From TrEMBL:
InterPro entries: O-antigen_ligase-rel_domated, WaaL-like. Residues 265-430 form the O-antigen ligase-related domain. It is found in: Membrane. The chain crosses the membrane at residues 31-52, 64-90, 110-134, 195-215, 235-252, 280-297, 309-329, 413-441, 503-521. It comes from the Bacteria. Keywords: Membrane, Transmembrane, Transmembrane helix. One of its GO terms (cellular component) is membrane. It comes from Solidesulfovibrio magneticus (strain ATCC 700980 / DSM 13731 / RS-1) (Desulfovibrio magneticus). This is Hypothetical membrane protein. Residues 652-677 are annotated as: Disordered.
Length: 677
């Protein structure tokens, strides 16, 4: 392949990536602007921040620092308001860096052209290509009915078991890849140090603020385990373990003040990791402390101490003080919790191996067995699990545990990649991570750079934790992989890759191309459905797409929709109960034609319809299109970060015929086949 052709393809991919980031950013801004004044103010601030990042050197420095320092504010799963807001931030950062990189020197533009960058780009292309396995007939209908902004809102806020979630996850990975490449290509030499300083500052703030909430008992979620402002203690432990190595940069500086600050940061991280009670965090976080001990006693250019052994008495006194305070605190009860800290720790240590993860790992591997080479689609575990578990011909249907607790991920990043992108995707990921680790290790060995050591340890901690968690689920945690990857790609761009490196990069794109061909051949999972004797990729008479898990509301079980949503229902009698806390119109349209237009407001409304049978065993789709939606967190500061529109309950088949409808509220009527609102 000629050099000119390679440059052309690289330029085309870069332009496509920036165009994707621009489209994703515009749609994200449009969705957030519709959520009220606080969200509108946030969008305006992000726009100003992005502009300063693009046009000013000082703005670049301050912008990268703030990007790292504010990560802890977005520690939620991928389909809620904080993650949608963080998506806009990443879009703006990628576009701003792309603008700054226009017209730069050719040497800088080689960053990302080696195997590390090629594997990341190929992964993004493979993830986007795997969306060909989605039900594009329904997605196209949703786009036509909902419009671009409402459809994107459904993509951004759909839970992990919906096809729209897969589409949003692939777009997020692609924007992440664009950001990493543009960060690597940027010529400013201080970008990684500034970003690392911001991450460390945010880490300290999250710990101090979180401890205040924790011991006051003001935290609203899982307050007996330390979560700071994250939504889950395990996710916060991921953040702590992967960000902790940046404290070594301060520890390795020559001034006593910096060293004291670095040591204090490590002490805060250690205590916080213990309080999260996340056992995987103890394992992954321990790498940083092992490195700190090694640096302390090894000496050398990274950490020069005149008398390292002379500090042992002070360390012994400090250790005794810490142990004494710990024993005193262990008998104290956490605020609003009736169990002391030592009892909680004893329980977690005693049950160290008691976890549902082995069952989850097995389920993920059984899903991967259906398509071991290229998988069933990026981040599609939750979508496929119920279908394959209910299908006798599937591996999961034959060997899965039907009584196991259901989760949205396999809780193992490597298994999650195999189930979604197959062995090809896993190979790309491992080559990318291995190449990045090798480049960072060489930099540490040759230059004794504390920054490169911190980035290397962060990369390793990320991949150690990945054995116990699915690291794509929380976008702010996935972002922590960006600095080491970008640094490795920047190092890669300084020298011309060798023959083996060029071969690895070429093979990455060959795998991506082969994956696209395989996904196109199984468009909409047509071949997989035929092999498993499935008329449609669904489990049961009713399938909710774009709805949150069920909740008890007014004595009945209902699900909130994430804005516009869809319900797959078996043909025949179907009964819908809808509820909205505010007056609004809700339009119901099926793939057989319009159904109804209901006026809701304060009381549930129940209606019954008959959906025709097309004769092929396929379910009918009912699109639920409410007039408005809201996010409590964005509008009044309530702790609920979901996009909520209308609550829905569905009865289908014999169940719908046996239960008489109980209409209530204003508007609505029964509609038989062929009726229109």
């Amino acid at each position: 392949m000629s050099e000119a052709l390679i440059q052309f393809l690289a330029g085309t991919l870069r332009a496509g990536g920036l165009a994707l980031a621009a489209g994703h950013g515009l749609l994200s801004a449009a969705v957030l602007v519709g959520l009220g004044r606080p969200a509108q103010a946030f969008v305006a601030l992000v726009a100003v921040w992005g502009l300063s990042l693009a046009v000013s050197r000082r703005g670049l420095s301050m912008g990268l620092f703030l990007l790292g320092a504010t990560l802890f504010l977005f520690g939620w799963q991928a389909y809620v308001y904080p993650s949608a807001a963080f998506g806009l931030i990443l879009d703006m950062a990628a576009l701003a860096l792309g603008w700054r990189n226009l017209g730069q020197a050719e040497a800088e533009s080689q960053a990302g052209a080696g195997p590390c960058g090629a594997c990341l780009g190929a992964l993004a292309v493979l993830a986007l290509g795997s969306t060909l396995l989605l039900p594009w007939d329904r997605l196209a209908a949703q786009l036509a009915f909902f419009g671009p902004t409402a459809f994107f809102a459904a993509v951004a806020f759909s839970p992990a078991d919906a096809p729209a979630y897969v589409l949003g996850a692939a777009a997020r990975l692609a924007v992440f890849a664009v950001f990493v490449r543009e960060l690597a290509r940027n010529p400013w030499p201080g970008r990684f140090e500034t970003l690392a300083s911001g991450i460390l500052a945010g880490l300290v703030v999250s710990i101090v603020y979180g401890l205040a909430l924790h011991f006051r008992g003001d935290h609203y979620l899982l307050h007996y385990r330390f979560t700071s402002v994250f939504a889950n203690p395990g996710w916060y432990a991921e953040y702590l373990a992967v960000a902790a190595p940046f404290a070594l940069i301060a520890l390795a500086r020559p001034s006593k003040l910096s060293r004291c600050f670095g040591a204090a940061c490590l002490a805060l991280v250690a205590g916080s990791l213990v309080l999260t009670l996340a056992r995987a965090g103890w394992i992954a976080g321990g790498l940083t402390f092992a490195a700190a001990v090694w640096l302390y006693f090894q000496g050398g250019p990274m950490l020069r101490l005149r008398r390292p052994w002379g500090h042992l008495p002070a360390l012994a006194v400090g250790g005794a003080l810490v142990v004494g305070v710990s024993f005193w605190a262990s008998g104290k009860e956490l605020a609003a919790v009736s169990r002391p800290i030592n009892a909680l720790l004893k329980e977690r240590v005693g049950n160290f191996t008691d976890s549902p993860r082995p069952t989850l790992f097995r389920s993920g591997l059984l899903i991967a067995a259906e398509s071991p080479v290229f998988g069933l689609g990026y981040e599609s575990y939750a979508r496929h699990y119920p279908v394959l578990l209910a299908t006798p011909a599937a591996w999961l249907g034959r060997y899965g545990d039907k009584n196991a607790e259901v989760f949205e991920t396999s809780h193992n990043m490597y298994i999650q990649i195999v189930s979604g992108l197959g062995l090809a995707g896993l190979a790309l990921w491992l080559v990318m991570a291995g190449r990045a680790g090798l480049l960072l290790w060489r930099a540490v060995r040759d230059t004794a750079s504390s920054l490169d050591l911190a980035l290397l340890l962060s990369l390793v901690a990320f991949h150690v934790y990945a054995f116990f968690q699915e690291m794509f689920y929380v976008p702010a945690v996935l972002f922590l992989l960006a600095p080491p990857l970008a640094r490795a790609m920047a190092l890669e761009g300084r020298t011309r890759p060798g023959r083996l490196a060029r071969l690895a990069g070429g093979m990455a794109w060959v795998l991506a191309l082969a994956g696209l061909v395989a996904y196109a051949a199984d468009f909409g999972l047509s071949r997989t459905r035929e092999r498993l004797s499935l008329a449609q990729w669904r489990a049961g008479e009713v399938v909710y797409e774009g709805f949150y898990p069920p909740e008890r509301m007014d004595g009945r079980e209902m699900r909130w929709s994430a804005g516009n949503a869809a319900v797959l229902v078996a043909p025949g009698e179907v009964e819908l109960t809808l509820f909205s806390p505010v007056p609004q119109d809700v339009l119901l349209v099926s793939d057989a034609g319009p159904l109804d237009k209901l006026r809701l407001g304060g009381e549930p409304a129940t209606r019954r319809y008959r959906l025709p049978d097309a004769g092929d065993g396929r379910a009918r789709t009912i699109f639920v299109m409410p007039e408005t939606a809201f996010v409590p967190m964005a509008q009044n500061g309530a702790p609920d970060p979901r996009l909520l529109a209308v609550a829905v309950a569905v009865r289908a088949g014999q169940e719908a015929r046996e239960v008489p409808p109980t209409p209530s509220g204003a508007g609505g009527r029964e509609v038989e086949r062929g009726d229109e609102p």
